[in-house]
């Protein structure tokens, strides 16, 4: 009996040893797998960090390029507008010259007819004409004055024709200049579209949850009763504006040097009457069709989308508790959360006369202030 018990004990000890060995081997395998997974995770994280750095650097380079291209496009727009105005003025001058020339030709024709009638009268007939010598001398003097007037009108018409030719040549030259400027503008617009697409692609790679952000902004817009309420909501939701290269430049130091967001001319000033009980809290700029709209200063996009009577709206948060509001755009090419450099494209205006009015509002501590002096607009 004792012998059997000893055998069983020995078998049990052997089995336990085998079980411990298997358990140890299994634990070691699990540890190796965990360490390997950790190393792979660290490698992926390091790769993601490097990718994020590359994307940020790529985005920063694209921002610089976009600022340069947008500046060139806006300069071309201003040049084309100025050239069109020059052509309009030259066209008016041509019309006046043509009208004057037609009138002078009519006067000259009348004088020539009178001179012909007088010249057909023979000298002996003039002597035999009834009347005294004074009347005869008066008739002769009239004939001489008519001839002198004809010569003067011919000289004047010659000068007018030379001036007309000069104006027509100038119009043709300005039209050629305008054609080249329009071609340059179209090229710039194509380059701008390509750069915007590249920025969009990089921004998508960064991986922000744009759908959730858009829904949050839409909810804020639905909740807000007016623009003041929307700004208040954004103030509670937002953080401190930090740009790609660190803290944004001080807004307060840029008085008089803020970039106008679009080429054009101001058609409504701050404080002007909008209706019987309301005055304008911003300015309105008449732009060209499809004109690009750019950031007036470095800032963070805190709102994009339609809002009540303002149409498509973009709100930028700058440093020093300043915000800028741009409304009336047809297309918007930025998302909430993006940091923009001064002059970087935001969107574009419409393609009709009724849709090229850009509303610009500037706020300090959520109170509207006149943006014109900040932009050096007199």
Mind explaining what this structure looks like?
- There is one protein chain.
- With 378 residues, the protein is α+β, with helices and mostly antiparallel strands.
- It folds into two domains: 67-206, Helix Hairpins (Orthogonal Bundle), CATH 1.10.287; 213-375, Glucose Permease (Domain IIA) (Distorted Sandwich), CATH 2.70.70.10.
- The chain contains five helices and 15 strands.
- It has helices spanning 2-119, 123-128, 133-206, 210-223, 227-237; strands at 242-243, 246-247, 264-268, 273-275, 278-279, 283-287, 292-294, 299-306, 312-317, 322-329, 331-332, 339-340, 345-348, 357-364, 367-369.
- The protein is elongated and about 135 Å long.
- The N and C termini lie far apart (116 Å).
Radius of gyration: 41 Å
Main beta-sheet annotation: 8 strands, antiparallel
Q: Please tell me the overall pLDDT.
A: 75
The percent range for helix content is 55-70%
User: How many H/I helices?
Assistant: 5
Which CATH top level class of the largest domain fits? Mainly Beta
CATH homologous superfamily assignment of the largest domain: Glucose Permease (Domain IIA)
Kindly, what is the distance between the CA atoms of the first and last residues, rounded to a whole number of angstroms?
116 Å
CATH architecture of the largest domain: Distorted Sandwich
Secondary structure: number of strands: 15
Q: Determine the CATH topology of the largest domain.
A: Glucose Permease (Domain IIA)
Coarse structural class:
alpha+beta
The geometry reads as elongated
For this entry, what is the oligomeric state of its chains?
single chain
Number of domains: 2
Q: Outline the low-pLDDT stretches.
A: none
Strand content: 15-25%
Give the H and E element order.
Answer: HHHHHEEEEEEEEEEEEEEE
